[in-house]
Amino acid sequence: MRVLPTTLIRSKKGLTTVVVAATVAVGTVASIGAAAPAAEVRRAEVSLNQLVPVPVEVRTAEGAAFELRSGAQIQVTAGAPGATDAGNYLSTLLKPATGFGLPVKSTTADRPGDGISLLLGGADPRVGAQGYELDVTRRSVVIRANEPAGLFSGVQTLRQLLPVRIESATRQSGPWTVQSGHILDYPRYAYRGALLDVARHFFPVETVKTYIDNVARYKVNYLHLHLTDDAGWRIAIDSWPKLATFGGSSGVGGQLPGHYSKADFREIVAYAAARGITVVPEIEGPGHSQAALASYAKLNCDGKAKELYTGYVPSPDGLLCVRKAITYKFLDDVIREIAALTPGPYLHIGSDEAHSMAPEDFAYYISKVTPIVRKYGKKLIGWQEMVSAQPGEAIGQYWINGVNNDEVAAAAAKGTKFIMTPADHAYLDMKYNDAQPAYPLGNVWAGTTEVDDAYNWQPDTELPGVDESAVAGVEAALWTETVFALEHIEALAFPRLLATAEIGWSPKSSHNWDAFAERLAAQGPRLRTARVNYTRAGGVSWAGCS
Ligand code: TNX
């Protein structure tokens, strides 16, 4: 149990709101076990119609289910490393519960024999670069995609179609059935992100890996790491070492200090990639930068180092000195080193909430940082505040209504794309409700967010002027001012992350709360078996006991 301070934070309408002291309890996780009856003709335990996110097309077939047996192989397209990676991932996922050491074997056959096959090429063109087709018969499971990303998505689908106990970390008994039928599936948006704030409180590599494991289940394909903020700088930079060693030595409330070494960061990037996820690093500026200003006196306008910041709200003193040349030497060095660590295409520059900065200073900063990101070969993402200050090559990230709606709409009209993260739907750090005694974590400034609030919105109608053509994708954001441990991360993210994930993946025409709530309920036992500390949030008829 831990008591958080009463404090002031931002509100939905830009006003300030009082957050009452919150008592934080660490949730418990139960496990389940069930044995499937033996039968002559196997019937599957899980229906093809139970998936989250719901696929584009599902056809169930009459007749016997596929049964995965111990002698099976995972056959992958020869000469395609991406297919081998997806095969290895699947083999690793299936091993603990089945006890099967499913070998990954190359094949040149277009229609390999029995068992599981992950094939690159020849999928229906409608599935594009990220979709897949899945065919299940009594004898085989074939996942076909045009690109490795599609195979990774297909692997997650197959995983959800196996009995719940496949999620157990210990050996369970079969049969390991999959319902026969056909699925054709592809995402509505190419970008489906999950933001984890490791700056307010630092979380070790293992925690990040566990989060990666669990967001990957729902076809999230980007992990946005918020690496720097007022309260902490969390990544080693060789040319400015004190950023991490000093700037990372605290956190909100003075708690959970730490930073990633470059090796740690590479490990996270590789772990994510092996699950089909690309890391997007965020280096915040010009606001939210007190950790840097505390680490180096010369970054400050007056040449004096700031104190380390431990507050819960944005620091009023956390603004970079935008007219000083050293600021851009610093950014060039940091962005060069971060870009070199990042195989993915994107680098996020923050840019939110520099409210007290003169607009021309803010615009100057954005005009200086944009070419640096370009020079190091990355595409720029920034919070919505920067869209009118930069030349239109960037992706904006929308998070708050009423701050600069007209600028966002004008940028969209000129072709700027947006990742949609509306705080009142997609901020996983908001409390579920005010009354839930078992769940005291979280912020409330954007309103409480039950699962239906997380689900009932559309990226293309959220903001006038931002229509479907301007939407690059969606992201669920987990800010960690009130979060101290993996249990808290999971209790806030699950199940609401599934809502954002489904909005990002599934066709708009399939959007239906009742149908979603039913499929979501079926994820409860799966998450519980996987030892994910999800919240049995209201409005969903969760199966089984808590
Ligand atoms: C707003 S989202 C922020 C974050 C906070 C979050 C808390 C954004 C661009 N700024 O710095 O952590 O609210 O909910």
Automatic annotation (TrEMBL):
This is beta-N-acetylhexosaminidase. SUPFAM superfamilies: (Trans)glycosidases, beta-N-acetylhexosaminidase-like domain. GO terms for biological process: carbohydrate metabolic process; glycosaminoglycan metabolic process. One of its GO terms (cellular component) is membrane. Pfam families: Glyco_hydro_20 (PF00728), Glyco_hydro_20b (PF02838). Residues 189-507 form the Glycoside hydrolase family 20 catalytic domain. One of its GO terms (molecular function) is beta-N-acetylhexosaminidase activity.
